[in-house]
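In this section we turn from sequence analysis to structure. A common task in structural bioinformatics is to predict how a protein folds when a small molecule is present, because the ligand can shape the pocket around it. The inputs are simple: the amino acid sequence and a SMILES string for the ligand, here zinc ion. Study the lines below before reading on.
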Amino acid sequence: MNEPLFNGPLAQMLRRAFRDTPNPWPDEIEKAVRAPEAVPLCLNCLAPQTRDGWFCPHCAFPTGDYVAVNPFSQIFVLGELFRRGVTGAPEKRVGVHLFLLVCSVTQYAAFAPVYWFWLWRRQLGRPICEPRREPFVVDLNA
Ligand SMILES: [Zn+2]
């Protein structure tokens, strides 16, 4: 392809529009996150992940670079998502309800009403069980 086709007035206008967006992070945070010695954190409990594993050693949440896109380990991510939908205190966010309703239909198909029953029970304050994981306490003195 000829490069002038990609440098027309529209391309230049788009580059200017998106290049001038402010970076929300200070430069030192950007460098710290992208540093090779940066330690990845668990998305659930923010515990440092010091080894290459599929699950957080503290909370057993699926972690790793490719867990959400790997078809096998994606099952564990979806399981955690649906488990959170039916455990704990009643959910007040409407968007979460809509997402869980639609997502459960796409994953469970004909069995989605069973999941909806447990969603409804949670809303009544009678969840299937309480969350069993204790919160991770970050040691600020370390
Ligand atoms: Zn964790």
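The chain has two domains: 10-52, 70-128. As an exercise, try to locate the residues that line the zinc ion site and compare them with your own expectations.
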